[in-house]
Amino acid sequence: MYRCDTCGSQVKTRNGLAGHKRFRHGVSTLANIREPGTTQREERERAEYEMMKFTAEKLSNIELIVMVLKRDMEQIKQRL
User: How many C-beta neighbours within 10 Å does residue 24 have?
Assistant: First the structure.
């Protein structure tokens, strides 16, 4: 459960708490909402890991696209 630090209300999800804070208290960010039982450092490390994972996936996709384009260019050259 997530607890609102302003009024003490409890909700089941992080997004639920974000919605509560947005509608009840005018706060519009998930940045200040941590998983229950985690420290700020752990949350920051998790966020950094997720960003690195996302970046690695994007780079892998770019490398795959480049590889396919090179192959296609070779096939076109062979036809000429």
Answer: 12
Place of tokens 């003490």: 8
- List helix spans (H) across the chain: 14-25, 40-79
**Over the stretch 24-66, which tens digit does the pLDDT of each residue have?**
888 766 655 666 677 778 877 887 888 888 888 888 888 888 8
Residue whose structure tokens are 């200040």: 32
Which of 66, 63, 1 minimizes the C-alpha distance to 33?
Answer: 1
What are the boundaries of each domain within the chain? 1-33, 37-80
Name the burial class of residue 78, with classes exposed (0-12), middle (13-18) and buried (19+) by CB atoms within 10 angstroms of its CB. exposed
Q: Which residues pair with 3 in a beta bridge?
A: 10
Residue type, 28: S
With bands split at pLDDT 50, 70 and 90, how would you rate the model's confidence at 78?
Answer: confident
